[in-house]
Structures
1.
Amino acid sequence: MRIRAAVLHEPRRPLVIEEVELAPPHDDEVLVRVAAAGVCHSDVRLADGELGDGRWPLVMGHEGAGVVESVGSLVTHVAPGDHVGFCIVPACRACRECMAGRFNLCIPAAENGPRGTLMDGTSRLSLPDGTPLQHGLMTACFAERTVVAAAGAIKLPPELPLREASLLGCGVVTAFGAVGNAARVQPGESAVVVGCGGVGLQVVAALGLARADPIVAVDLDRAKLELAAARGATHTVESGSATTAARVTRLTGRGADHAFEVVGRPETMRLAWDCLRPGGTAVVVGLAPRGVEVALPAIEFLSDKCIRGSYYGSGDAAADLPRLAELALAGDLDLAGVVTSVEPLEAVNDALDRLRRGEGSRTVLDLDL
Ligand SMILES: [Zn+2]
Ligand SMILES: [Zn+2]
């Protein structure tokens, strides 16, 4: 079928909204009518060619939600009409990582995601002239419709508005998993969040639900710090000076038990490290361009300080997404509050430019606008 989609033909060029061809789902795949898609900072990294070569031409979009239109013959967990959120790591549940419970590191998913194919190594997308198109992180949801692996469509309660549901599958699961699965924050522990964009604000919210105290939000931008305070940060610190780490250390006693880096730059990774107390752990959530390295004062390993990464929530998204949807329905997780604009698909390039300039937190593209 013909669908309208946002295509990256070349890095550092605007996406083109055009008609592309979408083939029907295979036996273990699902066709979804996309309702809404979030524009994430990783989209900027991908569009700017910072995640490596060979990633185009590609239909972008990896955070979204929609309604199932048809399913392959082997699919039983969803049916036409179901509301689903997309999951960018459709875990196979059979590989070595999946068997160890590290579903976010599923080996075939890790191979196919950057390749732009679905789980069988092929694409359902092409240009009208037959040129194959890659699927953005196995999701390709900056489009009217998409075909995803069965495990890439997670059933969500229909009461949750799809614009809000669209945020769960990248920003929210990444943030809540970093706090709950990677750092395992306990009530009363102190935490600092370096970077209060779309994901950083969700880290703040997750820390609030985990009853961390104090929760110190750090950002260069005063407007983002105000959003962080509204989402549960107990203190805010404007960064950009040599005293940032000292101010955070003072607010947390001897330094924070947990530091979350949600920017993806070496200087903010170093700042997260510098804010830790002895024995504290920094979790790097931010995505850095390929080739970037980070330096740390090695003597401080003597104080049991740790630094670790967290990818896609370090857990089982298939279980976490429905749980997060229930939190949102119960009023314990404010999804609408991080959305700073809602726009049609055609506005995708403006949304990417705002992220490049560091403005706003989340744009949601509404495919029905
Ligand atoms: Zn993302
Ligand atoms: Zn696997």
2.
Amino acid sequence: MKALCWHGKSDVRVDTVPDPKIQDPGDVILRITATAICGSDLHLFDGYQPTMEAGDILGHEPMGVVVEVGSGVKNLKKGDRVVVPFVIACGECFFCKRTEYSMCDTTNPNAEIARKAMGASPAGLFGFSHMLGGYAGGQAQYLRVPHADVGPIKIESGLPDEKVLFLSDIFPTGYMAAENCAIEPGDTVAVWGCGPVGQFAIRSAWMLGAGRVIAIDRVPERLAMAAKGKAEIINFDEVKVYDQLMEMTAGRGPARCIDAVGCEAHGMGSFDAMVDKAKAALHLATDRAHVVREAIMCCRKGGTISTPGVYVGMLDKIPFGAAMNKGLTFKMGQTHVQRYLKPLLAKIEAGDIDPSFVITHKVKLADAPDAYVTFRDKKDGCIKVVLDPS
Ligand SMILES: NC(=O)c1ccc[n+]([C@@H]2O[C@H](COP(=O)([O-])OP(=O)(O)OC[C@H]3O[C@@H](n4cnc5c(N)ncnc54)[C@H](O)[C@@H]3O)[C@@H](O)[C@H]2O)c1
Ligand SMILES: [Zn+2]
Ligand SMILES: [Zn+2]
């Protein structure tokens, strides 16, 4: 089959690789019909995520049709159309029983590497480094899906791929980011980053009772899409975010802050962002933590910071004293996607939201390497790319 493989920093290629096979009775094999590129893939493309190996298949936002079924699978049969969460979860361990699927204790075969780096291993993820399981990803023509009774959700309503594909990741991720804020009715929510995750965080904040949503980025078309989602916008290239947020909130700051940027933050002219960039370039640091710092400084006293943005390692110069003395609450994590599949599918079916609004580019899998560059460099108005592997 054809698959998008990582070969090194800024080097992804469409290779011919062996078709996946059933390895475990709980597996199914999918023929992929649509699969997306995520901001998280950029951290791999840009060389931020350790333990990648040449030839690794990327991708964790796939859907498709079941073509082979392991002997132990009960809920799926050949021909079923499913969306696959990026998190691989067993459904039975201590954490899965608590619906903390991205913390699953059993699905990372390389748990020891993760334990050394983090103290405990999170769940295995599709297409996301060996430290997180070494599972082949879904930017491919076929995909092996382990624990097929726990992850994939069947789409039986005939909705087109584009409307349901983002149940795999970014819609639940934006939603959990907003839920993690514990929004009280009427709260002001500030969202850093107007990429796909930020866009869903904005719309989810409204669903969960925000009174005001303020979105921060510098890419005009992303800010425009945020404004379409009824957010007030701040361009961080043009104004100082702290000053602007204080002005907009009578000096208090937003009660709920969402960091939908993660470890590759830019910070125009700010000294800390320049230091981050230099350190990352010299391999002295793993993350560019500008948004974490800024959100802590901006957040209202007693407020919440929710972090869907991905971080990798040791973050520098975090104003923890400010966070402590202002009494902030932090919530974060890889999304417990399985928890949100049914309720968010119901919202799509009810017409409350059409997630396809975020798609700007649809290309063949063969053109994925160019699409990575277009998406990373935010060229050509690119906000979200969907790949067609047919
Ligand atoms: N927690 C999860 O389970 C999960 C799931 C999916 C994605 N993510 C992460 O969420 C983050 C966003 O993903 P995405 O697909 O939207 O990525 P993206 O790269 O398309 O978007 C990031 C946006 O942040 C903006 N940005 C950069 N620096 C900024 C700053 N200082 N202030 C405000 N905005 C700034 C960029 O201009 C860009 O528009 C990534 O870190 C990704 O890895 C996490
Ligand atoms: Zn993703
Ligand atoms: Zn589990």
